[in-house]
Amino acid sequence: MTNSGSRPSRREFLVAASAVLTASWPTIAFAQTGPVTLDEFMDLSRVLTDDVANLRDNVGAQYQAALDPAALLQLVQATIRAPRPPQTFNDVVRAGVLTNATNAATVQQILTYWYSGLVGNHTADYLGALAWATLGFAVPASTKIGFPNWERRP
Amino acid sequence: MSDVVIVGSGVAGALVGFTLARAGVSVTILEAGPRINRDDAVNVFRAASAKVPESPYPNTAWAPRPSVLEIGIPGSGYFVQDGPEPFGSTYERIVGGTTWHWLGSCPRLLPSDFQMRTLFGVGVDWPIRYADLEPWYVQAERAMGVSGDSTQDQGSPRSAGFPMPRVPPSFLDSVVRTAAARIGLQVLSTPQARNTETFNDRHKCVGNSNCIPICPIGAKYDALIHLDLAQQAGAQVIPNAVVRDIVLSPNGTAAGVVYRRPDGSDVTVLAGKALVLAANAIETPKLLLMSRGGLGVANASDQVGRNLMDHPIQLSWALSGTPVFPQRGPLSTSGIESTRAATTRGQLSAFRIEVANDGWRFPIGDPTFEFGHEAAGTFVRLGEGGAALAARWRDHVSRELRFASLTEQLPNPANRVTPAFDHVDAIGLPRPRISFTVGRYSRDGMAAARTMHERLFTELVATERNHSDIAFGAGHLMGTTVMGADPARSVVDGEGRAHGVRNLFVVGSSVFPTVGTANPTLTLAALALRTADVLRRTLTQLP
Q1: No. of H helices and E strands in chain A?
Q2: I need a surface site. Which of B74, B348, B471, B519 has the fewest CB within 10 A?
Q3: Which residues of B are catalytic, by number?
Q4: Are A126 and B47 an interchain contact pair (Cβ–Cβ within 8 Å)?
Q5: If DSSP codes are grouped into helix, strand and coil, which group holds residue B131?
Q6: How far apart are CA B21 and CA B454, in angstroms?
Q7: pLDDT tens, residue by residue, B328-354
Q8: Where are the domains of chain A?
């Protein structure tokens, strides 16, 4: 009979620790090779855009869903899941990630999504599309905010 | 029964309806399409994958409409295009008509535009002169709320100033103005039906840069303004009423119309005094020709549907050597007008150069399309991203230039609209069959415009120069029920009254005998007000 209030024996500790390790190891391995999460995709997107504008999760989810999962996984493995994840687009370039043609094409597609706001024939986001958000001197058409000083150089 | 039944709720129908209703005349306005909620339409525009003029508006089964996405694709779309070239302009069939997505530019015709045969030996003369229409131009500018620079000479003498100060020229305009001056061209402020101050309880323009396809705040004039005023004065507006037949009385006058509902049922509306057709240069002749079982109305001259005209556009775009910062303000605030009165008229078309603030939206699409358009590919280069991509994109857009020159197309009887009885829509009504060719006169004018654009690009140190080989439609539907003094060669007289049917009137740009180079809305509005005045004064003598 074991007293629940007593300290575990060394053997009990080793057995328990072993059980925890056995249970947790596959989980860690899964996180490194399993499907890309939305958080990872958004982190990757912020790196690829140098965080030039606010990126919204619900929009990113649509872009992620439209990508080839295998190609995206390969890119994430090489970037967000790398031992030293890149912080900027230039970090991605310096790490040699884009020398792989698949990675380069996937990056181009991700950026095209964020700038266009389009997924195929569907508009995921118009007012937040980076094609407008990165201009600085104009606002998206139809905003009702307008740009009343059009006669001046911005 | 109403005294006056008006078919069509665009600017011409709305102005006539308001003028008569305000005078105590009972008026019914029939519109083929539905009413539109502005905020809903803005949301539809934002969600649309292709940001074209028609994007915010419904293409209903009972009132289908053409779309620029279908122009030139054989066998597609609302038009039955018989060629040899596709007709490139479109319109809306909704309450308010195409004023929902017009640009708002309001230049007047030149005095010489009314005398093409006499002065240049081409086309025909109008049965009226500029001086006849000038007072009505003033009335139209006041009704619509036109902003302009009264001190500038646009070639069209004025008896009154503009109701509002000019729309400020854009920064882009100032860059182009400096470059144009070096080659002897003057860039002038474009008169436009767009508020520069609170006018008739409507907000001033704040530069949403979305006049086409939809002004989100209603700072640009649209026909809803006069439809609302007409209703306040007692007029009735019936949407989703597709007029399919003009009913004649035994004495040959117009007795009313039959319209078809979306469910296929027919309703007869009697016109006690007069019938006014205001359904644009495609739908008006189609209705006249399909009436009476296809025998037609007011077509003793065989001119109904003929002489379809547009302002075929020479479109050119490039990147300026220095930033011009487009995508701000109304889509166009200035133009080059001196080319409208070129001494070469008679040999080739004159043209009006529209200086655009909307970057490459006309030739390429919305800025988002430069990344997502399948044909154009993506702006993103392989291996490019981050802040460098954003900087290259910003620099690119900041230098986007676009010129569009509107040429004058001559009347050609072979350019024609007829009802396609063998191609019916969802409620069994014929679609418009269109035979069309741009013609040598306009093509030569386009070539001259292209040369002028190229000279401007050179002065602007522009790169990536593009000149379209396609004659783009201007969205200006003109001709097909032309006015004239000779009943054998025209459809209506100088007041818009149909030859042979004395209580049937036609308003809109379908009555233009020739088209000049001015965007047509102000002229058609002036003519509509003039016809409305004739109706008001003579109504007791009708039918």
Answers
A1: 7, 2
A2: B74
A3: 476
A4: yes
A5: helix
A6: 51
A7: 999 999 999 999 999 999 999 999 999
A8: 37-133
